[in-house]
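Propose amino acids for all 390 sites.
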């Protein structure tokens, strides 16, 4: 009988122990990040008496700024007050998002005192702001207090798409549409439009499309939705010489100090192109790679002309000067109205070490070829390579 009583008592003690451990397991400081764990354990060291207990009260726990411009204030303040009768220890930790958080005072808050919790962030256009701050205190009822800052940063206006890509043959033109979207204006007027740089501006034209001006609902359905927009037609006129050009369309809106910028990448193909190892059609450059100084290297490239009759070609300029260039041909390409000129490019051994990849300190190689084709009197081949030691 005595053994049975001891067994029963042991079972009760074991069950109680398991229940307590289970309750502790369900809420454990180890579930928190390291910084929060340290703050919780520090706050737990303060054991006020039953008559003296701090009480943390924060004026609000969430700030939703809605849609704001990048120039809007990028900080917000929460007020925390000790409404208890014992000193209140406070620590703040940024748990989520990119920003900073700090307190105004660096000492415990005495009963009746207030402090400021300041949250700061860096606004970026078309990017949400979502920060979670955890306030750690020695208030037994509020060990962890979450604070949230929300919003969405939008530009005053922007082009959609922000880039236009024109690829045409010499003598051809092209058109594309772009929307100028405003995120704060409910009415939008285009004052004027300009193309830059001025040297090639005459080959481009833009106009507001009839009926393109639309007013969207006052309250957009999503943060990314514009309130109003204007449709433009952008045109590349025929006559731009062969080559690659970057043009900027500046759209000045009434009431906005800065224009909306739409970037235009225009590539005009002439009758001539190139082919061979390392040729990058999208960049219009030969990537020749590394050349060992003691060995040198030779490349066989090709110049291609789309025409029924071949033109006359002549190499007129080579850079750097140590490049040895020999132009052969022309050769008729079978079953095509095209001609091919083999181009031998040699980098002799013993040349200075260096990188010829473009830029002020390391200019890329160039081969300039004069032609008798009136559509493209000059052809420039760009070469990028590096001369290295063994």
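Proposal:
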């Amino acid at each position: 009988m005595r053994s049975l009583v001891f067994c029963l008592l042991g079972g009760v003690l074991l069950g109680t122990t398991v229940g307590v451990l289970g309750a502790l397991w369900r809420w454990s400081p180890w579930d928190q990040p390291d910084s929060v764990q340290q703050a919780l354990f520090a706050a737990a060291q303060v054991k006020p008496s039953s008559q003296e207990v701090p009480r943390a009260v924060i004026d609000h726990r969430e700030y939703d700024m809605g849609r704001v411009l990048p120039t809007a204030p990028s900080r917000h303040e929460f007020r925390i007050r000790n409404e208890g009768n014992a000193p209140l220890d406070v620590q703040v930790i940024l748990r989520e998002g990119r920003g900073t958080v700090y307190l105004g005072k660096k000492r415990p808050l005495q009963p009746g005192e207030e402090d400021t919790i300041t949250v700061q962030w860096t606004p970026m256009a078309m990017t949400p702001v979502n920060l979670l701050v955890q306030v750690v205190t020695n208030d037994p009822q509020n060990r962890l207090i979450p604070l949230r800052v929300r919003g969405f940063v939008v530009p005053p206006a922007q082009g959609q798409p922000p880039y236009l890509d024109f690829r045409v043959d010499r003598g051809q033109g092209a058109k594309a549409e772009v929307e100028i979207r405003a995120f704060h204006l409910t009415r939008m007027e285009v004052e004027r439009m300009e193309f830059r740089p001025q040297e090639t501006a005459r080959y481009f034209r833009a106009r507001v499309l009839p009926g393109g001006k639309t007013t969207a609902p006052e309250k957009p359905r999503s943060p990314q939705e514009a309130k109003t927009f204007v449709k433009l037609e952008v045109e590349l006129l025929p006559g731009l010489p062969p080559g690659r050009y970057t043009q900027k369309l500046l759209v000045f809106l009434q009431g906005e100090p800065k224009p909306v910028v739409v970037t235009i990448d225009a590539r005009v193909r002439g009758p001539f192109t190139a082919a061979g190892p390392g040729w990058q059609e999208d960049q219009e450059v030969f990537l020749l790679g590394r050349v060992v100084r003691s060995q040198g290297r030779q490349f066989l490239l090709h110049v291609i002309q789309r025409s029924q009759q071949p033109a006359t070609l002549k190499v007129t300029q080579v850079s750097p000067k140590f490049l040895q260039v020999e132009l052969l041909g022309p050769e008729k390409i079978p079953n095509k109205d095209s001609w091919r000129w083999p181009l031998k490019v040699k980098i002799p051994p013993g040349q200075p070490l260096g990188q010829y990849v473009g830029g002020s300190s390391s200019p890329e190689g160039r081969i300039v070829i004069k032609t008798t084709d009136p559509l493209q009197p000059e052809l420039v081949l760009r070469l990028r390579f590096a001369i290295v030691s063994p």
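The mean pLDDT is 85. Residues 272-388 form a domain with the Immunoglobulin-like fold (CATH 2.60.40.10).
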